[in-house]
Design goal:
CATH class of chain B: Mainly Alpha
Shape of chain A: globular
Structural class of chain A: alpha/beta
CATH architecture of the largest domain in chain A: 3-Layer(aba) Sandwich
Strand content of chain B: under 5%
CATH topology of chain B: MetI-like fold
Distance between the termini of chain A: 43 Å
Number of strands of chain A: 13
Number of domains of chain A: 2
CATH class of the largest domain in chain A: Alpha Beta
Strand order of the largest sheet of chain B: 1-2
Strand content of chain A: 25-35%
Number of domains of chain B: 1
Order of helices and strands of chain A: HEEEEHEHEHEEEHEHEHEEHH
Helix content of chain A: 25-40%
Radius of gyration of chain B: 25 Å
CATH architecture of chain B: Orthogonal Bundle
Oligomer: heterodimer
Strand order of the largest sheet of chain A: 5-1-6-13-7
CATH superfamily of chain B: MetI-like
Chain lengths: ~240, ~290
């Protein structure tokens, strides 16, 4: 009986595939160049383009929604949207709650940023990180004092105001900020490799969607379009796909 | 606007004109409307819930009285933030659960699968294929109910206090004229209680105005969310790069909230004066002397 229902629902799925299925893409919208809300008020960035390309290949009708980073996983599992595409590294802890597709962005080292003139010791001082990120977990276990903020922008503001000695975040996010700070902000200490690559988060019960997304990412890796998008958004970075 | 096509070439007043009219800023301005709409819709619902709660507490039927007691005491005792996180999720999942039972009776998979809450596509509320504004309107309605439930409990207690503050002699006079309990309640107690309840209700209104940023917890993008988002420092990835301007955006919100407070004070002062006429209170006596 169960098999019959399954077969019936698969038949229903494939029948519905002609009329594109609506998939709600959840993102944070505050982490350039991965994802941000542009001046027109729309979701923009590397992940917007990757997501739109995936949806075109998989013939999905995608709608973009933003959600606070803090509650981005709970709102996925309760069904407010169907994917998380928000620069989320694949980790074992997250994998227990949700599923990830294969990575669409390779593991990227995290970097420390501080005010110009800071010594490398600041990485053991008061370090800012965004709540519920791999960086926050790393700082807490590194022996430094962690101060958490709910948005990435606030972690940077904390360093500028002197509330924190340094901030730990993805290198690509900080690179723009350091480059445009007129020398006020610098990278300090050694980069740290934490977390895996970045994948699309889906509900554990959503196996079909996961398979469709994986197939689309496979295709983007094979035809080089993913590498092109990475080079476009991350200053000509060479990717290995 | 035509001239805003290339923001990097703009300077001075033109830059500001274009910057302040971006799509993102328009969303910010529109969110003031969202907040005002929430206040305008919540206040009457709060009054109805509060009045019903107060009447239930005064009821001579024990179960109704217990219900009123439980509502006012439980809701007032639970921290707002927990309530705002719990009520919308519980309501949303409750609605979807019933829709799933009705619309997809032949789906045998359980709704709770590990961490996931899975209902069939037809039971989604709103449907996954609905336009984004329907999702936002739905989120807004859930927020409205949560706000009304919380503030209704406080209003119930305030109105209950107001009812009990009406001097016993006033009610006895009504009884002496042969009025029924019902008539005494509606014709004497209710018209006179407002002046006693008003200070408490004024407090509630002020707290409600200030509580609207909690909307963002419920997924509604309110003025504080947009002020933080617009004020945050912007690199040249954005068309209008600027340093951290949150201070100015928050200062603007400060002015807005103070203006709301000031305008509310004016309205409540007039209302108090009006309600005090002919009342056997200090305020009412004072009016008699000056008149």
């Amino acid at each position: 009986m169960r098999k019959l229902v399954l077969a019936a629902s698969i038949a229903a799925m494939t029948a519905g595939a002609a009329a594109a299925e609506t998939v709600r893409m959840g993102t944070e919208g505050a982490y350039p160049p991965y994802n941000f809300i542009n001046d027109a008020g729309e979701v923009d960035g590397f992940e917007r383009e990757v997501g739109d390309a995936i949806c075109a290949i998989a013939n999905l009708d995608c709608v973009w929604v933003t959600n606070d980073w803090d509650s981005i996983i709970p709102n996925l599992v309760s069904g407010n949207y169907d994917t998380i595409i928000a620069g989320m590294s694949i980790t074992d802890e997250r994998d227990e709650v949700i599923d990830f597709t294969q990575e669409y962005f390779p593991p990227d080292p995290s970097a420390y940023m501080a005010l110009a003139g800071a010594s490398d010791d600041v990485v053991n001082g008061v370090v800012a990180a965004q709540t519920a990120t791999i960086q926050a977990g790393y700082v807490a276990s590194s022996g430094a004092t962690v101060v958490e903020f709910s948005t990435p922008d606030e972690t940077v503001a904390a360093v500028r105001s002197g509330e924190a000695d340094a901030v730990l975040a993805d290198f690509a996010f900080l690179a723009d900020i350091v480059n445009e700070s007129n020398g006020e902000l610098i990278f300090v200490g050694d980069d740290v490799a934490i977390g895996g690559g970045i994948g699309v988060g889906v509900r554990e019960s959503d196996a079909e969607l996961k398979a469709a997304l994986n197939a689309a990412i496979d295709q983007m890796k094979a035809d080089g379009s993913l590498n092109a998008l990475i080079a476009k958004w991350f200053d000509g970075r060479e990717a290995s796909y | 606007m035509e001239m805003c096509a290339d923001p990097s070439s703009l300077e001075g007043i033109n830059w500001w004109m274009c910057y302040l009219t971006t799509g993102k800023h328009q969303a910010f301005y529109a969110s003031f409307g969202t907040v005002l709409l929430l206040l305008a819709l919540t206040a009457p619902v709060v009054m109805v819930l509060g009045f019903s709660g107060a009447m239930a507490r005064k009821s001579s039927i024990p179960p109704l009285r217990w219900l009123g007691m439980i509502y006012t005491n439980v809701v007032r005792g639970v921290p707002d933030i927990i309530f705002f996180l719990f009520v919308p999720i519980a309501m949303d999942q409750g609605i979807e659960y019933f829709r799933h039972r009705v619309k997809c009776p032949d789906v045998l998979e359980p709704i709770r699968q590990g961490n996931d809450f899975v209902v069939c596509t037809a039971a989604k509320m709103p449907l996954g294929s609905s336009p984004q504004w329907m999702h936002e309107a739905y989120g807004f309605s859930l927020a409205l109910v949560a706000f009304a439930l919380v503030f209704g409990a406080f209003a119930a207690n305030t109105l209950y206090g107001g009812m009990n503050a009406v001097p016993r002699g006033q009610l006895e006079t009504g009884e002496a004229f042969g009025m029924t309990q019902r008539q005494v309640f509606w014709r004497i107690q209710v018209p006179q209680m407002w002046v006693y309840a008003l200070p408490g209700l004024t407090n509630l209104w002020m707290i409600l105005i200030k509580a609207t940023p909690l909307l963002f917890l419920l997924g509604v993008e309110d003025i504080v969310y947009w002020a933080r988002e617009l004020g945050g420092s912007k690199t040249s990835r954005f068309a209008y790069p600027h340093p951290d301007w949150r201070l100015y955006y928050f200062a603007f919100l400060l002015v807005f909230y103070l203006f709301m407070t000031w305008a509310s004070e004016k309205v409540f002062a007039r209302l108090t004066r009006k309600l005090s006429h002919g009342q056997a209170t200090l305020g009412g006596e004072a009016l008699k002397v000056t008149a």
